[in-house]
């Protein structure tokens, strides 16, 4: 699967967005997290996004009328890549965040500050 994704990126069949551009564009775009709600809750999320698990994406796309670009993400980029392919079938322009949420979470901005994200919560979390 990852080999196919790589080939599609090289052949310019798949649209991807790297973190720096994602950070510049996310406030004007519709940001869609394609992970299941349980995974999203456990791992964290990007503030202001919509949660549309991959299995529900066709229904969402049929009813959606996003203004402009859709940026998708998941844990590492695999299901968000598949989401861009599904959305293209509905005429929706979408790009997948390379590296997914993990890349976003551990990124640093130019001034060395951590990117703001919604911190994951789970039963072992001791910080309030």
UniProtKB/TrEMBL annotation:
Superkingdom in the source lineage: Archaea
Please give the SMART domains that the UniProt record associates with this protein: RHOD
Q: Which InterPro entries match?
A: GlpE_sulfurtransferase, Rhodanese-like_dom, Rhodanese-like_dom_sf
The record's section on Pfam families has: Rhodanese
Location of the Rhodanese domain: 25-113
- The coiled-coil segments of this chain are none
Name of the molecule in the record: Rhodanese-like domain-containing protein
Origin species, per record, is Halorubrum ezzemoulense (Halorubrum chaoviator)
């Amino acid at each position: 699967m990852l080999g196919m994704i790589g080939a599609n990126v090289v052949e310019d069949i798949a649209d991807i967005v790297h973190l720096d551009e994602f950070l510049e564009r996310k406030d004007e775009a519709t940001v869609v997290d394609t992970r299941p709600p349980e995974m999203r809750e456990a791992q964290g999320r990007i503030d202001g996004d919509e949660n549309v698990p991959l299995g529900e994406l066709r229904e969402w796309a049929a009813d959606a009328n996003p203004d402009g670009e859709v940026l998708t993400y998941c844990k590492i980029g695999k299901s968000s890549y598949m989401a861009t392919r599904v959305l293209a079938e509905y005429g929706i322009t979408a790009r997948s965040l390379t590296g997914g949420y993990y890349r976003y979470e551990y990124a640093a901005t130019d001034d060395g500050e951590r990117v703001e994200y919604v911190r994951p919560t789970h039963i072992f979390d001791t910080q309030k």
